[in-house]
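Example 3.2
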Amino acid sequence: MSDKKINFPILDICTLSETRDEDFLVSRFGAYLERHKNLHHAHRHSFYHLVFFTQGAGFHTVDFSNFDVKPYQIYFMIPGQVHSWSFEGPIDGYVVNFSEEFFQSFLLKAEYLANFSFFNNIAQDSVINLSFPLNQKVKGFFEEILEQAQQKQPFAHDMIKSLLIQMFIAIDQQTITEKPKNIPQFNYTLLKNFQKLIEKHHTTLKLPMEYAELLYITPNHLNALCKEHLGMQAGEVIRNRIVLEAKRLLVNKNTSISEIAYYLNFADNSYFSKFFKKHVGASPEEFRKKI
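Structure, written as tokens:
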């Protein structure tokens, strides 16, 4: 990962929590909105963020993809993603925020959460409409989590973690049932590792051959895997992640285009602008104005 730094506004949990708990927050969503009315603007978090709607309409945006708000819809966000919302009429449900460290002492697998399909950094996979009876089961999980948080009994945080994991598994099992993966396990593991490497190195490694070397496979093998199972070549997967990071950084108007180009390791501002316009259809300045 590049050691270049960009300073942009990121919300942390203690900014949003009345209890100043730096690792966890749970609230009914209507009350959360009342306390934080300015959160409709595009922003990014330093924590995991999930919202389960039980009432409401309008839309919300995750990493620049728009989704209609519906009752019994849940969305999941990982640290670094950008989102905003615009609601119509009464809105309610539940919100849970937790830090990257929240589960570390509880789970032996440091990257356990990355196994869930909705924590894969792809906006389209992170918004799920829950059908009956799962939506009622998930609602029950949130009620239990609220109760545990309010009572503050011994082991309350461990109980909350247990309830969250049970909920994640129940939702992911529905997602897997609805979207069967006809892909051999070895190929699936390779693609997951490729995506993890892109997350780690997209500011410094731009070529498929560099990732293929880290995966101990040939560039042709990597391209064939991506084309068969993702519908695009490896180079496009890498470029899409670079474009997404550029869009996220453009949300902060205090960061200059040249600073973003430098952070993403482009040779100069002009080359970055040409790259961005080619893949987005608008210059960085035009895209920023639209936001």
